[in-house]
Amino acid sequence: MFEGKCDVVAMAEEELDKQDQKESQSEVIRAIRDVDIAIDQIRESFSLIFGMLEDRGHEWIDNYEAVQPSSSENHDEGKIEELTSRHRSKVKPLWLVEREAIQSAIAASGGSITRAAVLLEVAPSTLYRKLRSWEDA
Fold first, then answer.
1. pTM of the model
2. Which among 2, 64, 106, 126 has the fewest CB atoms less than 10 Å away?
């Protein structure tokens, strides 16, 4: 009589173990789905951010080209040389300030060009282009 009860108890325990395993698997599957959803949301956010940066980059380029002096506006070369020689120690050229800012952002980003671009609010392609141009010089 006890033998039959032991078999029933053993079968019940096995069934409970199977249910626990199924519940654990279901929890893992739900967690994986939640992580997948979070990753998709992060990807969408980065796509939006980089899209906005690309748009702003085009605006900046357009604005830069609009304010460049024409060749007829450069007739004061003597005055410019005098001004440059007087203030050289106080004022850095813009390209040098830009280069230092980019190098600083890359260092702060652990060498990541993409993260540095986010910090500087420019497109990563801009940083790659500038870095390449400095290597060529």
1. 0.39
2. 2
